[in-house]
C-alpha cells in the first residue's frame, strides 16, 4: 500500500470508525471536521501541488500546519476561536493515527 493510499484509508477510518462509531460524535461535529480537512487539504494542494488523494501523512508536518493556521487568520479572516476549532480537528486525527500506529 502506497503512502498516499494508506493516508487516505486512515482519514476514511478516522471519520467512519473513530468519529461515527467509536466516539459517536454528532453529525454537526462530523461536518465541522470534514470542512476543516477540506480546507486543510485544499491549502496543502496549493502548497505542495499534490491532489488531496495523493497527500501523505508526512505532508502534514508542523510547518505546513502552522502555515495553514496562519492562512486561516490572514487570508480567510478567521478569528482565533474558528482557527482553534480547525486545529482541534487536526489534533484529533493525529491522536487517532498515533494510537492506531502503536496497535499495528
In the predicted model, the low-confidence regions spanning at least 5 consecutive residues are none
Rounded to the nearest angstrom, the distance between the terminal CA atoms is 15 Å
Structural class per helix/strand content? mainly alpha
Major sheet attributes? none
The whole-angstrom Rg is 14 Å
**CATH classification, class level:** Mainly Alpha
Domains (count) = 1
The number of distinct helices, counting runs of at least 4 residues, comes to 4
Mean pLDDT over the full residue set = 93
Describe the oligomeric state of these chains in a short phrase. single chain
Quote the beta fraction. Answer: under 5%
Q: The CATH topology, please? A: DNA polymerase, domain 1
Q: What pattern of helices and strands is seen along the backbone?
A: HHHH
Write the layout of secondary structure elements.
Blueprint: H1 3-22, H2 27-48, H3 62-74, H4 80-103
Helix pairs in contact: 2-3, 2-4, 3-4
Task: Give your account of this protein's structure.
- The protein has 104 residues and is mostly helical.
- 76% of the residues lie in helices and 0% in strands.
- It has helices at 3-22, 27-48, 62-74, 80-103.
- The two termini are 15 Å apart.
- The mean pLDDT is 93.
Amino acid at each position: 500500500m502506497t503512502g498516499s493510499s494508506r493516508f487516505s484509508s486512515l482519514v476514511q477510518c478516522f471519520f467512519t470508525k473513530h468519529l461515527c462509531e467509536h466516539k459517536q460524535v454528532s453529525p454537526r461535529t462530523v461536518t465541522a471536521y470534514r470542512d476543516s480537512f477540506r480546507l486543510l487539504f485544499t491549502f496543502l494542494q496549493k502548497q505542495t501541488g499534490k491532489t488531496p488523494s495523493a497527500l501523505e501523512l508526512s505532508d502534514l508536518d508542523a510547518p505546513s500546519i502552522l502555515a495553514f493556521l496562519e492562512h486561516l487568520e490572514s487570508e480567510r479572516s478567521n478569528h482565533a476561536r474558528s482557527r482553534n476549532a480547525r486545529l482541534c480537528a487536526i489534533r484529533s486525527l493525529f491522536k487517532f493515527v498515533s494510537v492506531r500506529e502503536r496497535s499495528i
